[in-house]
Amino acid sequence: MQRIAIIGMGLMGSSLGLALKKRGADVSIHAYARRAETRARSLALGVADKVFETPAEAVAGADLVVICVPIWSISELAKEILPALKPGAVVTDVGSTKTELIALMDNLFANSEACFVGSHPIAGSEKTGVEAGNPDLYEGRLTVVCSSASVSKTAVADVSNLWKRVGSDVVEMSAAQHDAMLATTSHLPHMVAAALARSVGTEKADFCGTGFSDTTRVASGSADMWVDIIDTNRAPLEAELDRFHEELQGLIAILRSGNQGDIRRWLEEAAATRNAILQQNRFLK
């Protein structure tokens, strides 16, 4: 039986535990959460088989460790668990950026018999906490796996197989490719949703309909998580925000021209682009 340690019992960690249990994986799940209440709920909800008061206790004897905390906290926790990892253990994460993290972790694991392989399941919710755990969160979703050249193919396969076991498709790419891609498809939409919520303001609340609710849903996500994402992916995100600013400036120019035909074409092109994206996307059906 494989032993998997999950460090962090928020949405992503609790969903992973529930997903493995639902699919009958032959695993023993050991978990760590900072708060005693969260540890108790993790047991009560069937997220983990055992819970521990320290990360080092949770990873002892684990074959695979999944760190499910905000990005800047990942390397700090890795430092704490490193002495407790058994030789050959593979550590991974669920963070939304990879370049800075992998550089930190490669240095940290340089003299260790354990190793780090980055992973990012492109799944989530604006909900947080162990109670938000969803056993189908990763089903039919894409997970990106990123590793350094020095990491063995066996370790990469172990991480890829973990996500396949909970229903994900897996693709491997470099950390730089991943961060540039997600700046476009994930980080930019979140910043736009947050900016829209800020610009509307609470004084107009009664006049906000489902369009506002749908468009700004992700702005309710965890600030702790998103500040780390922004901080570790500044240059790619800045480039995407510049491009988005150009699009807005183009729209303003169309509005000022008073040309109804240009407005119609702009809207029709936007609708066609969105429809094409959704049609081609294998994971949003």
Blueprint of the fold:
Layout (H helix, E strand, L loop, with lengths): L1 E6 L3 H12 L4 E6 L3 H9 L5 E3 L2 H5 L4 E4 L3 H11 L8 E4 L5 H10 L6 E2 L1 E4 L20 E5 L6 H13 L3 E4 L2 H26 L9 H7 L6 H9 L2 H24 L2 H21 L5
Parallel strand pairs: 1-2, 1-4, 2-3, 4-5, 5-6, 8-9
Antiparallel strand pairs: 7-8
Structure description:
- The protein has 285 residues and is of the alpha/beta class.
- It has 2 domains: 2-173, Rossmann fold (3-Layer(aba) Sandwich), CATH 3.40.50; 177-280, 6-phosphogluconate dehydrogenase C-terminal like domain (6-phosphogluconate dehydrogenase C-terminal fold, Orthogonal Bundle), CATH 1.10.3660.10.
- Helices cover 52% and strands 13% of the residues.
- It has helices at residues 11-22, 36-44, 55-59, 71-81, 99-108, 153-165, 175-200, 210-216, 223-231, 234-257, 260-280, and strands spanning 2-7, 27-32, 50-52, 64-67, 90-93, 115-116, 118-121, 142-146, 169-172.
- The strands form 2 sheets. The protein has a 6-stranded parallel sheet with strand order 3-2-1-4-5-6, with helices on both faces. A 3-stranded mixed sheet has the order 7-8-9, with helices on one face.
- Strand 8 (142-146), helix 6 and strand 9 form a beta-alpha-beta unit.
- Helix 4 (71-81) runs parallel beside helix 5 and helix 7 packs across helix 10.
- The protein is elongated and about 70 Å long.
- The two termini are 35 Å apart.
- The relative contact order is 0.11.
Task: Name the shape in a single word.
Answer: elongated
At CATH's second level, what is the architecture of the largest domain?
3-Layer(aba) Sandwich
How many β-strand stretches? 9
**Helicity level, as a percent range?**
40-55%
Unreliable sequence segments: none
Distance between the termini: 35 Å
Task: Kindly report the name of the CATH homologous superfamily of the largest domain.
Answer: NAD(P)-binding Rossmann-like Domain
Spatial order of the strands in the main sheet? 3-2-1-4-5-6
Strand content: 5-15%
Oligomer: single chain
